[in-house]
Amino acid sequence: MKQLLVLPFIVFGSYLHAQDTLSLSREECEGVFLKENLLLIAEKLKISQSEALVQQAKLWPNPSFTLDQVNFWATNYQTQGQEIVPPLWGNFGRNQQFGMELEQLILTAGKRKKLMALERVGVDKAGVYFEELLRSLKTEFRSLIAELQYIQGIEAAYREQLTSVAKLTVSFQSQVQKGNISRGEYVRLKALELELTSELNDLKNDRNAVQKELKSLMRLNPLTILVITDKPGTVAGNLSQLRAADLIEQAKSNRQELKLAELEKEYYSKLYAYERAQRVPDLSLKATYDRNGNTMLDFIGFGFSIDLPFFNRNQGNIKYAETGLEIAKIENEFRQLQVENEVVAAYQNLLIASDFMNNIEPGYEQTLDDLLKHYASNFQSRNISMIEFIDFLDAYLDNKKIILDAEKNVSQKLEELNYAVGTEVLQ
């Protein structure tokens, strides 16, 4: 019985370890994201959903048909001796009473066209909502890609240090056994190895957290391990050519929030027109046939019905639409001011991040890597002390983090600027 219980865990454990590594460039990752993201697919369907409402608004009201006053039995007194033929056989309707009515509702004051115009604004808003979701998800996705690249770079630095320290630990262990060095130095080196291993495990946890979000956005198998093959890119183009005023004008043309604000104004404007049209009563045309229910044997009549707008002239709904239009105008003004401030802040943040990265000397990272090998070799040869070696390792890691963080920061600040402007200013 115990063997049966253990077997599923063994199979499940093997399944977890059977993970595939997917190596993609940034551009390839974005291609998968744009094609497979479920939120974008669902939002795109909402456009078709809104178009269906426009199609529904085009339709005329159905005519209604009424058959009533059918009598299934009658007394001799009621018929005064006339023969009654059951309505289900024979000559239907002979000496029988029944009535029929055909009614058609006629929408007045252009209500149908006004409703169609109102629903078309909904289609436009659905399209803008899709673009806004795409812009938000794309910014989030690219920031996560930059974060994953940063973690991969830091992981590589820690692995390189761990490999170097692990080799020294093995070498020192044999020297301790021979009595050439003190056990205290070996223990200190082993503690450094464990510390680096712990830091590396923390980085792996961070990587898993970022990959979880990316795999959801890219619709990847949860067991897939995503690896970004290219290094963080630099800002293409000259930032000095950008002007805050030009970026603000671009944002006014491209920001989806501003388009939504304009559509909100248009929506309430058309709603106001529609609600005012509701003041005019609709007209119902009627055609009636009555058999044996009147002084005439076969009576055919025509008529109409209309509401008398004595009490309800749709005053509340008209006021609602009118107030909504005023609110939309105020909110539009606020959003424009908000967008302008976002663009300026994002532009200034990108300049700060770019200036800092440009101040790092080209080749400085390679110099650090060469010095690490040099220090490890000198420490193994006992040319430098353990304190000097450990101090350098700390400085090496700190500088590596600064360089990689600067690259990530520029990439993310660029995406923030693209998001603020509403289009890709720079790649």
Automatic annotation (TrEMBL):
- Gene3D superfamilies (alphabetical): Outer membrane efflux proteins (OEP)
Segments spanning the bilayer are none
Report the leader peptide range.
none
Is Membrane tagged as a keyword? Answer: no
Keyword field: Coiled coil
Kindly indicate whether the keyword Kinase belongs to this entry. Answer: no
Tell me any Pfam family this protein matches: OEP
* A molecular-function term among this protein's GO annotations: efflux transmembrane transporter activity
Chain coiled-coil ranges: 186-220
Q: Which domain of life is it from?
A: Bacteria
InterPro entries the UniProt entry points to: MdtP/NodT-like, OMP_efflux
Instruction: Give the similarity note.
Output: Belongs to the outer membrane factor (OMF) (TC 1.B.17) family.
Alphabetized PANTHER family for the sequence = OUTER MEMBRANE CATION EFFLUX PROTEIN, OUTER MEMBRANE EFFLUX PROTEIN
Q: What is this protein called?
A: TolC family protein
What is the species listed in this Swiss-Prot or TrEMBL entry?
Taishania pollutisoli
